[in-house]
Amino acid sequence: MRIPKTIREAVEQRNKLNKEIETWFEKQGVDLYGMSTDQAYICEREKVGGKYQGDGEICDQMQHGEDSFSGTYYWECDNGQYLAMDFWL
Length: 89
Hints:
It is a single chain. By secondary structure, the chain is α+β, with helices and mostly antiparallel strands. It has one domain. 26% of the residues lie in helices and 33% in strands. The chain is built from one helix and five strands, in the order αβββββ. It has one helix at residues 5-27; strands at 41-43, 51-54, 57-63, 69-76, 82-88. It has a five-stranded antiparallel β-sheet with strand order 1-5-4-3-2, with no helix packed on it. Strand 4 (69-76) and strand 5 form a beta hairpin.
Protein backbone atom coordinates (compact mmCIF):
# COMPACT_ATOMS: atom_id res chain seq x y z
CA MET A 1 0.00 0.00 0.00
CA ARG A 2 1.20 3.48 -0.84
CA ILE A 3 -0.29 6.52 0.92
CA PRO A 4 -1.78 9.00 -1.61
CA LYS A 5 -0.89 12.68 -1.67
CA THR A 6 -4.30 13.73 -0.28
CA ILE A 7 -3.82 11.62 2.87
CA ARG A 8 -0.21 12.73 3.34
CA GLU A 9 -1.24 16.38 3.01
CA ALA A 10 -4.13 15.88 5.44
CA VAL A 11 -1.73 14.44 8.05
CA GLU A 12 0.74 17.27 7.46
CA GLN A 13 -2.07 19.81 7.92
CA ARG A 14 -3.25 18.06 11.09
CA ASN A 15 0.30 18.11 12.49
CA LYS A 16 0.56 21.83 11.74
CA LEU A 17 -2.77 22.51 13.46
CA ASN A 18 -1.75 20.40 16.48
CA LYS A 19 1.41 22.50 16.84
CA GLU A 20 -0.70 25.69 16.62
CA ILE A 21 -3.00 24.39 19.38
CA GLU A 22 -0.03 23.38 21.58
CA THR A 23 1.62 26.78 21.11
CA TRP A 24 -1.61 28.60 22.02
CA PHE A 25 -2.02 26.56 25.22
CA GLU A 26 1.64 27.11 26.16
CA LYS A 27 1.17 30.88 25.77
CA GLN A 28 -1.81 30.62 28.15
CA GLY A 29 0.40 28.88 30.72
CA VAL A 30 -1.38 25.52 30.42
CA ASP A 31 0.78 22.44 30.95
CA LEU A 32 -0.25 19.79 28.44
CA TYR A 33 1.87 17.07 30.03
CA GLY A 34 0.03 13.75 29.67
CA MET A 35 -2.31 15.15 26.99
CA SER A 36 -2.26 15.02 23.21
CA THR A 37 -3.79 17.64 20.94
CA ASP A 38 -4.31 14.79 18.46
CA GLN A 39 -7.07 13.65 20.79
CA ALA A 40 -8.70 17.06 21.42
CA TYR A 41 -12.42 17.19 20.72
CA ILE A 42 -15.39 19.53 21.08
CA CYS A 43 -18.36 18.61 23.26
CA GLU A 44 -21.56 20.13 24.61
CA ARG A 45 -21.91 21.46 28.19
CA GLU A 46 -24.02 18.50 29.30
CA LYS A 47 -21.08 16.15 28.57
CA VAL A 48 -18.73 18.11 30.88
CA GLY A 49 -18.10 16.70 34.35
CA GLY A 50 -15.60 17.31 37.09
CA LYS A 51 -14.52 20.20 39.27
CA TYR A 52 -13.93 23.82 38.34
CA GLN A 53 -10.18 24.56 38.50
CA GLY A 54 -10.29 28.32 37.95
CA ASP A 55 -9.83 30.44 34.83
CA GLY A 56 -12.53 28.49 32.98
CA GLU A 57 -10.83 25.11 33.34
CA ILE A 58 -12.74 22.03 34.49
CA CYS A 59 -11.06 18.72 35.37
CA ASP A 60 -12.74 15.34 35.69
CA GLN A 61 -10.16 12.87 37.01
CA MET A 62 -9.75 9.45 38.58
CA GLN A 63 -6.84 8.25 40.68
CA HIS A 64 -5.15 4.93 39.84
CA GLY A 65 -2.85 3.88 42.62
CA GLU A 66 -0.81 6.31 44.67
CA ASP A 67 0.36 8.78 42.02
CA SER A 68 -1.31 7.94 38.72
CA PHE A 69 -4.29 9.85 37.34
CA SER A 70 -6.44 9.88 34.22
CA GLY A 71 -9.32 12.01 33.12
CA THR A 72 -10.37 14.92 30.98
CA TYR A 73 -9.73 18.65 31.03
CA TYR A 74 -12.40 20.96 29.59
CA TRP A 75 -12.17 24.61 28.51
CA GLU A 76 -15.16 26.67 27.43
CA CYS A 77 -15.15 27.86 23.82
CA ASP A 78 -16.46 31.13 22.42
CA ASN A 79 -19.71 29.44 21.32
CA GLY A 80 -20.58 27.77 24.66
CA GLN A 81 -19.23 24.36 23.67
CA TYR A 82 -16.14 22.89 25.33
CA LEU A 83 -12.75 21.84 24.05
CA ALA A 84 -11.81 18.60 25.82
CA MET A 85 -8.52 16.72 26.12
CA ASP A 86 -8.06 13.43 27.91
CA PHE A 87 -4.92 12.85 29.99
CA TRP A 88 -3.04 10.07 31.74
CA LEU A 89 -0.34 10.79 34.29
